[in-house]
Automatic annotation (TrEMBL):
HAMAP family for this protein: HisZ
PROSITE patterns in alphabetical order: AA_TRNA_LIGASE_II
Protein name as catalogued: ATP phosphoribosyltransferase regulatory subunit
Domain Aminoacyl-transfer RNA synthetases class-II family profile per the UniProt entry, residue ranges: 28-324
Known pathway: Amino-acid biosynthesis; L-histidine biosynthesis; L-histidine from 5-phospho-alpha-D-ribose 1-diphosphate: step 1/9
Superkingdom of the source species: Bacteria
Organism listed in the record: Labilithrix luteola
Name of the gene encoding the protein in the UniProt record: hisZ
Family: Belongs to the class-II aminoacyl-tRNA synthetase family. HisZ subfamily.
Lineage per the UniProt record: Bacteria, Pseudomonadati, Myxococcota, Polyangia, Polyangiales
GO biological process, one term: histidyl-tRNA aminoacylation
Length: 421
């Protein structure tokens, strides 16, 4: 059975894109605000890059993404080829190199926005990704890496997650073990290593001087003991230094109180050709994929004419929201009050002055129905405040315009619930 509507109205969105209706949109906005509040506490200033830019500017800093992931179009006014941003890090790099070139480093910048990527098959669900993140530019060494690990943990605790894992690695390990290997062959090896496919890896590394070390990386993941073993195993290879660097970072993070959230993988290959040192992925129960990731990319800024070390962290708001929901925190609390009265009812102003959402409807029946449909926390009929779902009383007022202390306390609770306090 069909609705009789034109197909364009039945299915108005391309695959991988979706609308957010009020409840979900409010929940995501509140989540982003909580994350940004912690970014700000660590000194990160918010910047807002445009949704599209010239292709040759963005693509020079794509990093781990392929040019096939980019949605291109010709800008009608200029005839220039532009792209919808597939990643915000190149945009931050451009801002640092141009708009902020007169500012003193280090640059601590935060961002928030949606990135759009071209995808095929099942991956189409990832075409539109709401992100928040930070970039720390101009600071080399482990202190910057530690700052971002601490910030990631701080943010996740702020949004209510206690059970999460930050998996750390160092891109230099695999890069150094594949030094001198032809690019195409190196890609095959890293794909097998990424899948932990020891059989294929054994075949692909036949004849390589670092074969034994590469095969060992398949199992060198877990806790500190895996890194200690990696340092010993790689001591006589080019990867000795990044292995020691990773162990030192792990120990420093433990000293900062992150031990219960840390794991390590000496054989992580994500973005090994782009990242220059520390890399990390963040996991929590629910999404089945990282809720965030980051790493050091010391060579990126030089592509924009401003060479300096840099490290970044990005969080997927949808995945983060999923993890919170899995932990029992996904639903936003009902908020606001529907007043039984006229549009000029003085109670509306009183409620709004207390930072509560407030609307008016003329009858108790209309107000209750509206409050249920749009998830308002309460209906105020002039003498009492009640729950629109259960009709249970929430508080009493002395009159239409005056309230007692208990009623004010009820309003404070509603305000806290609406803010997610």
């Amino acid at each position: 059975m069909t609705s009789g509507l034109p197909r364009s109205l039945e299915h108005p969105l391309p695959a991988g894109l979706r609308d957010l209706l009020p409840e979900e949109a409010q929940s995501r906005r509140a989540l982003a605000q909580r994350v940004q509040s912690r970014f700000a506490a660590f000194g990160y200033r918010l910047v807002t890059p445009p949704v599209f830019e010239l292709a040759d500017v963005v693509e020079r800093g794509l990093g781990t993404l392929s040019s096939n992931d980019v949605l291109r179009f010709v800008e009608p006014e200029s005839g220039e080829v532009c792209v919808l941003r597939p990643d915000m890090t190149p945009q931050i790099a451009r801002i640092v190199a141009t708009r902020l070139r007169d500012h003193a480093p280090p640059f601590r910048l935060a961002y928030e926005g949606t990135v759009v990527r071209r995808r095929i098959g099942r991956a189409k669900k990832h075409r539109q990704i709401p992100q928040v993140g930070v970039e720390l530019c101009g600071v080399a060494g482990p202190e910057a890496d530690l700052e971002l690990l601490e910030l990631a943990a701080d943010v996740l605790r702020e949004v209510g997650l206690e059970r999460f894992t930050i998996d750390v690695s160092d891109a230099g390990i695999v890069r150094e073990l594949l030094h001198g290997v032809a690019a195409e062959h190196a890609e095959d090896v890293t794909r097998a290593l990424g899948r932990k496919d020891e059989a294929q890896l054994s075949e692909l590394t036949e004849g390589l001087a670092t074969r034994d070390a590469l095969l060992a990386l398949v199992r060198l993941h877990g806790g500190r003991e895996a890194l200690v073993e990696a340092v010993a195993l790689l001591a006589s290879t080019r990867a000795a230094e990044p292995a020691k660097r990773l162990l030192a970072l792990f120990d420093a993070a433990v000293a900062r109180g992150l031990s219960s959230h840390l794991t390590a993988d000496a054989g992580e290959v994500r973005g090994f050709a782009y990242y220059t040192g520390t890399i990390f992925s963040i996991y929590a129960k629910g999404p089945g994929e990282p809720i965030g990731a980051g790493g050091r990319y010391d060579e990126l800024l030089s592509r924009f004419g401003a060479p300096m070390p840099a490290i970044g962290l990005g969080l997927d708001l949808d995945a983060l929201g999923w993890a919170r929901k899995d932990a029992g925190m996904g639903e936003s609390a009902p908020d606001g009050v529907v007043v039984v009265g006229a549009p000029d009812d003085p109670r509306l102003r009183m409620l709004r002055e207390r930072s509560l959402v407030a609307v008016a409807l003329s009858t108790r029946e209309l107000a209750t129905s509206y409050a249920r449909s749009w998830r308002f926390a309460a209906v105020w009929d002039g003498t009492s405040l009640f729950d629109p779902v259960t009709n249970a009383p929430l508080g009493k007022s002395a009159s239409v315009t005056s309230v007692d202390e208990a009623f004010l306390q009820t309003l404070a609770v509603l305000r806290s619930a609406s803010r997610g306090d």
